[in-house]
Protein: HNH endonuclease
Amino acid sequence: MTGRAPKTCSWRNPENMAQGCPRRAVEHRGRDYRCEQHPVVENLDANQRARRRRIKPLTTAEKDHIRERDWHVCRECGAPAHQVDHITEIADGGDNRPSNLQLLCDRHHALKTAQSRRDGDPRDAATLRRELSARALRKRRLREQGFYVQ
Structure:
């Protein structure tokens, strides 16, 4: 006995997500605990499973390596830069290898993001600017004033 309480089934009613199954779980798959009446059904083909994979986020050391490799300047204009950007987006099949990463200034990173949004998303650059966090805007102002330098 492990001393832990038995897990209950993690199944939820699709019509009413607040309604779950009270039975004791017998099967564990990842974060999913299921009873015998609600088995986990995996009907994904190989391509869907590959798309669903998790790619670990870049560490600070990896980002610093890219910044040093690119001499802390934007690949587009040569201005001081700090935004580590994926050349081929992860959603489009890219990965976190250094050959797929580049350093961009705020302006070119926003332009690239706005362009990719225009290509695949109906939202425009104005919407993108509104979605920036307060922390990102504060850091941008400090960088423009010369206080926050990497």
Summary: Residues 7-42 form one domain. The first strand starts at residue 27 and ends at 29. The chain has a mean pLDDT of 77.
